[in-house]
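Many introductory courses stop at the sequence. We go one step further.
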Amino acid sequence: MNQVYQRRKDLLMDITVTSASRTALIDITASIQEKIRLSGIQEGLCFVFVPHTTAAVTINENADPDVKTDILSTLKRVFPQDPSYRHREGNSDAHVKSSLVGASETLIIQDGRLVLGTWQSVFFCEFDGPRTRKVLIRIQ
């Protein structure tokens, strides 16, 4: 049992993501795939978790950059940065966006690769940047 625990512990990895603007969708698919390659896991699951309250992770289209722009502009329109929020840090909109988009995704690994649709990528969602953040990856 101790060996199983140690093996799983070794498969918790992280990715560092740096954003250049207050909001951004940053493609982290290749970084996740590299962690899978390093793990040696051929079949299983990959859990992606963002341990931040003003950031998130999502899966969406990456073929047309206008999709990312549309997502961010819609979130900004629906949840604007507004001084009337009660949270004094001025980033309540980022907290709301993070909660709605979500802090985690679960992906399937098959033949050592992420299973994604033709146009899909995994995006780190920055809602309160610019910052340097961590994304945790658990591969089983």
